[in-house]
């Protein structure tokens, strides 16, 4: 079974084609009202740690190292429940991971999508 997982900015208009909409940011998106987000869930515990997020600063030149560190964080025991829940969601329905990040190609949502679809498993 191919998992149908995508990612995009939370500020884009929602669509019925999104399936389950899950915010994967630790901090609530600036200027976004909760009722306008059309979320199914907000999984803060799968977001990068505050320390990692600050270090990364969304600098594309740091993305490879960010990705490596983030995948390491996802294996931490305190994240197990949230990670398992996200995997379960990915296995049952179309899933759209949402982030407020401007550069979604260099975001945790992109890393999670790759990881959940198996494209990044060998590197995890």
Overview of the molecule:
- With 124 residues, this protein is an alpha/beta fold.
- The protein is built from 5 helices and 4 strands, in the order ββαβαααβα.
- It has one domain (5-123).
- It has helices spanning 34-37, 50-56, 63-74, 80-92, 108-116; strands at residues 5-9, 20-23, 41-42, 95-99.
- Helices cover 36% and strands 13% of the residues.
- The radius of gyration is 14 Å and the shape is globular.
In short:
It contains five helices and four strands. By secondary structure, the protein is of the alpha/beta class.
Mean pLDDT: 90
Tell me the overall shape.
globular
Supply the number of helical segments: 5
SSE string, helices as H and strands as E:
EEHEHHHEH
Sequence of strands across the biggest β-sheet: 1-4-2-3
**Binned strand content:** 5-15%
- Terminal residue distance: 21 Å
Strand count, sense and barrel status of the largest sheet are: 4 strands, parallel
Give the low-confidence spans.
none
The total beta strand count reads: 4
Q: Considering DSSP H and I runs of 4 or more, what fraction of the residues is helical?
A: 25-40%
- For the record, the count of structural domains works out to 1
Measured on Cα atoms, how large is the radius of gyration? 14 Å
Structural class: alpha/beta
């Amino acid at each position: 079974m191919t998992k149908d997982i995508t990612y995009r900015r939370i500020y884009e208009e929602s669509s019925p084609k999104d399936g389950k909409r899950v915010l994967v940011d630790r901090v609530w998106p600036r200027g976004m009202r909760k009722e306008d987000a059309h979320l199914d869930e907000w999984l803060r515990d799968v977001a990068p740690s505050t320390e990692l997020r600050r270090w990364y600063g969304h600098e594309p030149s740091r993305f490879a190292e960010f990705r490596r560190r983030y995948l390491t964080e996802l294996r931490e025991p305190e994240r197990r429940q949230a990670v398992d829940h996200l995997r379960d969601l990915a296995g049952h329905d179309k899933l759209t991971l949402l982030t407020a990040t401007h550069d979604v190609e260099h975001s945790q949502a992109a890393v999670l999508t790759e990881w959940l679809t198996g494209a990044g498993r060998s590197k995890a």
